[in-house]
């Protein structure tokens, strides 16, 4: 199981089915490239970069071109079935978004070792509510990673 599917109690195949069903319910076609990207994301686990994802897609589907993978990631992100997270250093990572029945999560990146930590999706709810109320600003924290120091690096510094 991938980290994300595992956290939701899903096998990768179940995650693939859920995402493809979500696309079908939106009236979207299931192209070979879309299936390849979704299947690879479901099986890869963690938080792969676009380049890492491209490498893994091409291991399984050698005829899929680089530009096709990047376009497909953009399209699947726009359709809401893939989430991309900006890590602050220009890089982004990707994972499947499994729809409203499986709420999303936030991310934190250790500024020392680069580890990505999953956080509860509602963690910044009070902050988002306050910003909306006091500043008329709608926060979208799911697309950026918070920065800090993980427990391992903090302990190593002691």
Number of strands: 5
Name the helix and strand elements from N-terminus to C-terminus, one letter apiece.
HHHHHEEEEHEH
**Residue share in β-strands:** 15-25%
Mean pLDDT: 88
Q: What characterizes the major β-sheet? A: 3 strands, mixed
Q: Which descriptor suits the 3D outline? A: globular
Q: Flag low-confidence runs.
A: none
Radius of gyration: 17 Å
Sheet with most strands: strand arrangement: 4-3-5
Question: How many angstroms does the end-to-end distance come to?
Answer: 35 Å
- Number of helices, counting only DSSP H or I runs of 4 residues or more: 7
* Helical percentage: 40-55%
Helix-strand makeup class: alpha+beta
List the helices and strands and how they pair.
Elements: H1 3-7, H2 12-25, H3 32-44, H4 50-60, H5 66-78, E1 82-86, E2 92-96, E3 105-110, E4 116-120, H6 125-135, E5 145-148, H7 151-156
Parallel strand pairs: 3-5
Antiparallel strand pairs: 1-2, 3-4
Helix pairs in contact: 2-3, 3-4, 4-5
């Amino acid at each position: 199981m991938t980290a994300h599917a595992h956290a939701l109690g899903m096998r990768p195949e179940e995650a693939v089915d859920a995402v493809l069903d979500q696309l079908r319910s939106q009236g979207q076609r299931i192209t070979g490239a879309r299936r390849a990207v979704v299947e690879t994301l479901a099986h890869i686990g963690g938080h792969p970069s676009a380049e890492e994802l491209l490498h893994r897609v091409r291991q399984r589907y050698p005829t899929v071109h680089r530009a096709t993978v990047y376009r497909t990631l953009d399209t699947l992100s726009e359709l809401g079935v893939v989430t991309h997270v900006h890590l602050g250093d220009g890089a982004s990572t990707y994972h499947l978004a499994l729809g409203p029945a499986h709420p999303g999560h936030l991310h934190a990146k250790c500024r020392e070792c680069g580890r990505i930590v999953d956080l509860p999706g509602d963690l910044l709810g009070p902050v988002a509510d306050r910003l909306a109320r006091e500043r008329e600003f709608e926060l979208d924290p799911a697309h950026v990673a918070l920065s800090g120091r993980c427990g391992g690096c903090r302990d190593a510094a002691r």
